[in-house]
Design goal:
Helix content is 12%, strand content 33%. The protein has one helix spanning 2-20; strands at residues 28-30, 37-39, 50-53, 59-64, 80-85, 91-95, 102-104, 124-127, 130-135, 138-143, 148-151, 156-158.
């Protein structure tokens, strides 16, 4: 019972501090050395994600700009391009700020594909350091430094 009372007292005191300051206290995370907690730096520049889908509806992509969005932050801060292929087996390909493209064959949050906008065959999409070419044989996406991935029903590739 004493533990419950102590928890309630702590919650009430935190609530009164938040209200006195005009809102909730900043989120806190453990410090790098595993010690006390430190305030999480707030990201001030947030952009909008862009989506597109190929005419077949089998491949769809989401681009997240540098700085992320209000609801999603890439692990490295972005930019990030993530494309999902539905058939014959669900796969996700991702290009981050740096390093090789990654293929994920066990995707837990399958969410492909939006209804549009459609990137017609022969068209190129570009944003940030990324560009993608839609063709009848698949989708080819590349970052400025040459790292890329290719998705189609018949072939997957990433470098």
């Amino acid at each position: 019972m004493k533990f419950v009372a102590a928890c309630l007292l702590a919650l009430l005191s935190m609530s009164s501090l938040a209200l006195a300051d005009g809102g909730a206290p900043p989120p806190r995370v453990p410090t790098a050395d595993g010690g006390k907690t430190a305030d999480v730096p707030e990201v001030t520049s947030r952009g909008q994600q862009e989506e597109f889908v190929l005419p077949s509806g089998n491949i769809g992509c989401i681009y997240t700009p540098e700085g992320g969005t209000a609801v999603y932050q890439p692990a490295d801060g972005g930019p990030e391009l993530s494309c999902d292929r539905i058939e014959p087996r669900y796969v996700r390909a991702t290009l981050s700020r740096e390093g090789a493209a990654t293929l994920y064959k066990d995707v837990g949050d399958q969410s492909c594909c939006s209804a549009g906008p459609v990137l017609d065959y022969g068209e190129t999409w570009t944003a940030g350091p990324f560009s993608c070419l839609s063709t009848r044989t698949g989708l080819s996406c590349e970052r400025d430094d040459g790292h890329s991935f290719f998705l189609s029903r018949k072939r997957l590739a990433a470098n």
